[in-house]
Amino acid sequence: MEYDDLKPTVWANNPDSRLFLCWRLVLITGRIHSIESMGLVDGPGIRSVVFLQGCSLRCAYCHNPDTWAMEDPSNEELTAAELVKRLVRFKPYYGRKGGVTFSGGEPLMQPEFLTEALKECKNAGLNTCLDTAGAGFSDSYPEILKYTDLVLYDVKHYDSEMYKKITGRDMDETLRFLEEVQKQDIPLWIRHVVVPGLTFGKEHFEGLINYLKRIKNIEKIELLPYHTLGVMKYERLNISYRLKGVEPVRPEDLEEIISNSR
Question: Most buried of the four, 37, 145, 159, 170, by CB within 10 Å?
């Protein structure tokens, strides 16, 4: 068999019948909405927070509608290696508890890139955290979670009808993700946005507590008060805001409801 190392081909025995075998290295890139270098509220310690573009949910109270589309002209495209090379520079600031949190949008919507990025982080000795609603609609959950140290799990609602009212989607997918998290025994921080008329009141919190009792490995529960800081984004994108006129929950009212629900 003839072989010419100056040509990207493997030659067949018959020179007139050439078999061309071509290999092409495909680099997976991620669509990055933004990166926060010194986050203090998205997991333990000081963290870099990588916001990935794309989300399949349309939550009524979402304050980042600019992350919904899978692509946006303002996105930065990076390979996993390029991203982690940038993040490693902040490693001295992470300390023992800090690290990298992947958020969105919904980070699970870019499963191939997310897997590679998490893997690169672990290879670099970085703690990894996934801030997610568990709505990636892929079969990559087992592989993604292999490289995840902590999951910040956004519980939209414990009732299937209310879940669909809030997100526009059925609850099945997030339950499938949660099942895999439980299977791999990954620690969870629960996040729940408190919205008047949707996720607020004594009866609601009693139902939420009963729901969370069935989930293992919960280390922390965060109740996040609804706010209207993202309303201007809806106006800029010409998207109708579903909670127009709904006022944020007052801290004292939230504390009273929580105390009465224990």
Answer: 145
Question: Which residue pairs from 61-66 have beta carbons closer than 8 angstroms and sit at least 24 positions apart in sequence?
Answer: 61/166, 61/193, 61/195, 61/198, 61/226, 61/243, 62/230, 63/227, 63/229, 63/230, 63/233, 64/33, 64/104, 64/105, 64/230, 64/233, 65/230, 65/233, 65/234, 65/237, 65/239, 66/33, 66/233, 66/237
- Alpha carbon separation from 30 to 164, 251, 253 (Å, rounded): 28, 38, 41
Mean pLDDT across 140-159: 98
Burial label, 229 (beta-carbon count in 10 A; 0-12, 13-18, 19+)? exposed
- 156 neighbors 175 (Cβ within 8 angstroms): no
- Phi, psi at 74, each rounded to 5°: -85, -5
Q: What is the value of pTM for the model shown? A: 0.88
CA atoms of 250 and 134, how far apart (whole Å):
29
Angle at 72 between CA 75 and CA 90, to 5 degrees: 20
Q: Tell me the average pLDDT across 255-259.
A: 78
